[in-house]
Design a protein that fits this description.
The chain is of the alpha+beta class and 187 residues long. It is built from four helices and ten strands. Strand 4 and strand 5 form a beta hairpin. Helix 1 runs antiparallel to helix 2. It starts with 16 loop residues before the first strand and ends in a 9-residue tail after the last helix. The model has no long low-confidence stretch (mean pLDDT 94).
Length: 187
Amino acid sequence: MSEVSALMGAETTGPTRVVEGGLRGMITLRGDPGGAAVKAAVRDVTGQDVPGPRGIAVEGETGVAWMSPDELLVLVPYDTAEHAVATMTKALKGDHATIANVSDARALFHVTGPHAREALAKLSPADLHPDSFGPGEMRRTRLAQVPAAIWQGSDDAFSVICFRSVAQYVFDILALSVKEGGEVGYF
């Protein structure tokens, strides 16, 4: 496992900020999110219930996000990811499920401040209007040219996950999008 995050804490300054989120344990679990065994395994590792479609349940560094009808993203502290994979693998032995530690293949960013929603909406085709996207929701989408997932933690706080290989690109486009004077006044 890596000892450094993708951009080692890169951040912007200003009223709306972009901060690289550091190392985070991320585990892809493919299986039946409605199945009792999957629900129990996820709850055991995260303390969270499996959310419904487009949902995310996060408390601190642990959580679980619905990514597709047969895929969940399990979030744990980085140094516990391998243990979480082993725990879920044991719990789901005999079930049709695959579990992969993708922590080192992903990067995490936090976008916070008064224009965070607007900054993300400028880059994504997803409907991020407050009537369509709120706290506790996750969207898989694109940011400019790359795949990403966005979730809203609170009114002016969003998190973005992308592939580590495009972390610099994502940071740069987010930094440009939050730059003061770039507001369009949509939201």
